[in-house]
Amino acid sequence: MIEMLVLGFEEILSFHLLFNMFLGTLAGIIAGAIPGFTITMAIILTLPFTFGMSPNVGLATMLGVFVGGLSGGLITASLIGIPGTPSAVATTFDAFPMVQKGQPGRALGIGIWASFFGSLISMILLITLAPQVANLAMKIGPWEYFSLIVFALTIIASITGDSVIKGLLSGSLGLLIATVGLDPMSGFTRFTFGILFLEAGVPFLTVLIGVFAVSRLLTELEAKDEVKSGEELVTGKIKFEPFATMKEVLSQPFNLIRSSLIGSLIGAIPGAGASISNILAYDQAKKGSKHPELFGTGIADGIIASEAGNNSTAGGGLIPMIALGIPGSAVSAVMLAALQLHGINPGPMLIRNNPDIVGTIFVGFFVATFFMLIIQFFGARLFLKITKIPKYILVPTVMALCVIGSYLLNNRYSDLYILFVMGVVGYFLKKYNFALAPVILGVILGPIAETNLRRAMMTSSDWTLFFTRPISLGFLLLGVISIFYAYWQNNKMKKNRAES
């Protein structure tokens, strides 16, 4: 292990490689901050530029894009309440309310530090536990995947807002939207009502942008006098205190470490991804808090949990890639493709045959994390100027970015119709106090749950395997505990409100 790290430092410590990695991290942050422009898209656009590079330089550049992209989503999630990436959905729950309270510098600072420390913790796990965690991930079949998604769906009970019934209805709407289009197993069309473009399904990123972004912009337009008068998102002087926010993050070591461990574990499970770990870490922070009623009002605990869980997924996702040659996510799949283009065969023999490549990944991940911190903090004062832009400029600009981002996903005009419909749906849901997050959770997790349930039943018709396989049973038990705990916590919060 020491030899690989030494080889990695030898490869990394060159101006050419460091410069490319810095540019990659910067590009990742910018891509992550643009609603609809995903990290996967950024990595794919980076791939052609790596053809003329050595394997080490190309891989390090893509690592920079990966780490930067995961952190970049918090910029728009915090400052305008619109997640730049699906993995920043939970960040909006507390970061944007904190901004609305007139503390955008604090919200951004906490998010940046939580991203940084979450990445470092996942890097330590990547270096020390890669083979062990990868072996555990290999024991996860369709039964375990389905049970994991069931557990993740129980989070809906914790993010329902004031009404559990309304939250469950929102989650059901998300699951219903996810069924539109081609059946993932048989290929037959479902719920398209004869509309041809719906056969391709409803892209969850379009739903995310519509429900979160367009609905918020439509809400802003209700107060047309504020928009016309040029009122800013945040009035008054903006403070940015990086060291104060670092102390605030480090004052919650248990929350930080727990969220990072959740992110690393979810990242190591192929196909799970940061969208799940972001919300799951937030949910566990709320369940373990002494003051859960403050979550969603602009509390630091929620930002720390969501961002640490989000960014630690990067290190976890690289574990099966290095140890077994199996992509943990779409991003690591592109990285594996890049290695193969350079004649390097990923797999269990990668560590033995190409220790310099593995060392570059270890050290490059560490360096990219520091580049992310430097770029975020030097750019923070520029990012914070977003909150001082008059609303009559901010609203149409963000709307234009949402439209462009939605179109670029698949280069289809039909996606813009879906964007508009989802925006109107989100607007009315928000107007009548329905939680928006369960809709997104249902859209993201629904197809994964359905596909793995049907794979499990096609592999074996014995439904008891969901309960006899230990890991699957463990996830289901966690789901049951999660539901009862959320129910108890909601009742406790209602009692506290009634007493106060």
Q: Can you describe what's shown?
A:
By secondary structure, the protein is mainly alpha-helical. 73% of the residues lie in helices and 1% in strands. The protein is built from 22 helices and two strands. Strands 1-2 form a two-stranded antiparallel ribbon. A hairpin with a 6-residue loop joins strand 1 and strand 2. It is globular and about 60 Å long. The mean pLDDT is 80.
Write the layout of secondary structure elements.
Layout: H1 2-12, H2 15-33, H3 39-46, H4 55-79, H5 91-100, H6 104-138, H7 142-153, H8 164-178, E1 181-182, E2 189-190, H9 204-222, H10 224-229, H11 242-250, H12 253-268, H13 274-287, H14 300-324, H15 330-341, H16 350-353, H17 355-383, H18 391-410, H19 414-431, H20 437-459, H21 465-468, H22 470-499
Antiparallel strand pairs: 1-2
Helix pairs in contact: 1-17, 2-3, 2-4, 2-17, 3-4, 3-15, 4-5, 4-6, 4-14, 4-15, 4-17, 5-6, 5-14, 6-11, 6-12, 6-14, 6-17, 7-20, 7-22, 8-20, 9-18, 9-19, 9-20, 12-13, 12-14, 13-14, 18-19
